[in-house]
């Protein structure tokens, strides 16, 4: 019983970490209609920038995160402004292909700049403690991730539901032409949304650095996870992505205990079943 | 007439390749032929039927593992290859039923998840697939029909001829398929699903056919691999391997018959050449992909022919 509760909490922290990854992908798909294959690479860049600023240059951890968010925002800006913008009118296949090209580019760029060897960033000392949960030590860092995930969920919700910008974004997501006709500057708005999504990816990557290795190729691994989550929750559906992240996170936490051999298989099976039975996702309308 | 002559010359040149090329060149040539078969099948689904699959490596791996398992128990090349293709075809027919219910992005995601399910089986089902070690020591069994003939496959050039024969057969059949009413029906579905359905063509049936044939081609490419490498490993089924025919096809040209073949040649040569200058060949490939998608969606073939054209 205690194991179940404890593992549930572990699952929740994994879930919130995955949610940070999936949120940006979902927003970009929901508004721009582009499934960004390179979202995982932006996540990876966030991790590498944080490693550089905090681990190499010794910048304050929080400042390092803010700086890496800005750095990835610049990368995202260039991606959208000079490449993605030209293919919105094309079939989804070409958007997948273009962003796949970016995975290849980013992966090698990272190898070029930081080398092919995995980096192990230092953990800030204030994350090192543990909290007692059902009599066992639970890392303070995991609690922090849970808190951040929830906070990001609330901020994103407020941003889209309560601000003028959010209203414009929702308007153009449901009808681009109409939004444009009533004076929304669609190209600028789309750039903004893409940059926002990129920064969310970077935040996930940056916050992972204290416990995860940073290596080329993590982007490609993470994007598949993000695809699974967004598909389960419904492509472009934020609420769905949040629940999808909890499902996948919890499942992998318990899966490792209960059926370690077929955990991976099971997750893809769930993805396939959801696609077949309810392609709009568990929460799609 | 001119095209036929060109094809004839090409086939003769390929047949004479062992006479003037070394072992490494033959090895590369076999790999190019395998990728061509793989990409042709993929393009039936993508270029002709309009469905982008990200799970073709799954069927490739089924063909490869199937052939490997057969060769390990019954060392006969033909049985191994045909067996691998049949198993891959059966699996793709089965999964095709499930995949073709959707189109566009949902189709891509569904094929991705099935491909990765096959990958996780190859990786974790240790008793059957050897787990992450894969299957090793697969013999390049002799090509034999009992009572008729038996050819030793140990020399690379002999195996090259087997692969070449299968590739020519596959390419010829592909030509017949896309120029048949069936091929036209598929292109009709690509251009307008509704119109094609309205003239009484069963969209689902042709999508399933296209999916199964693509799976058969992937399975054939896969089944030809283990005798060459004498080993099969889980990465064969990984989605990043599914990307290879996608890239090759994009490179050569999506809407042309020869696109995937030209693309496979270019893909391998580019890789071979770029690797000599820099270890960052993936980046060059990525840049090429981005340039092609932004500017030349008809691929290399369209640049040299007026017919291909941009889309």
What does this protein look like?
The complex is a heterodimer of chains A (285) and B (311). By secondary structure, chain A is mainly α. Chain A has eleven helices and two strands. Chain A has a domain at 33-149 and 185-216. In chain A, 73% of the residues lie in helices and 3% in strands. In chain A, strands 1-2 form a two-stranded antiparallel sheet. In chain A, helix 1 runs antiparallel to helix 8 (186-208) and helix 9 (218-233) crosses helix 11 (263-277). Chain A is globular and about 60 Å long. In chain B, a hairpin with a 3-residue loop joins strand 2 and strand 3. Mean pLDDT of chain B is 86; it is low at 307-311. Chain B has one domain.
List keywords for this structure.
heterodimer; A: 285 residues; mainly alpha; 2 strands; 73% helix; B: mainly alpha; two-stranded antiparallel ribbon; 15 helices; globular; disordered C terminus
**β-sheet strand percentage of chain B:** under 5%
Would you identify the regions of chain B where 5 or more consecutive residues have pLDDT less than 50?
Answer: 307-311
The total of beta strands of chain B comes to 4
Number of helices of chain A: 11
What integer is the average pLDDT of chain A? 86
Sequence of secondary-structure elements of chain B: HHHHHHEEEHHHHHEHHHH
Structural class of the secondary structure composition of chain A? mainly alpha
Strand content of chain A: under 5%
Using only C-alpha atoms, the radius of gyration of chain B works out to 19 Å
Shape of chain B: globular
Task: Please give the structural blueprint.
The complex is a heterodimer of chains A (285) and B (311).
Chain A: H1 2-32, H2 39-56, H3 61-82, H4 92-114, E1 130-133, E2 136-139, H5 140-162, H6 164-174, H7 176-181, H8 186-208, H9 218-233, H10 238-258, H11 263-277
Antiparallel strand pairs in A: 1-2
Chain B: H1 2-20, H2 23-48, H3 56-73, H4 77-99, H5 104-124, H6 126-129, E1 135-136, E2 143-145, E3 149-151, H7 156-178, H8 181-191, H9 193-198, H10 203-223, H11 225-229, E4 231-232, H12 239-252, H13 259-277, H14 281-295, H15 299-304
Antiparallel strand pairs in B: 1-4, 2-3
Helix pairs in contact in B: 2-7, 2-10, 2-12, 2-13, 3-4, 3-5, 3-10, 4-10, 8-10, 12-13, 13-14
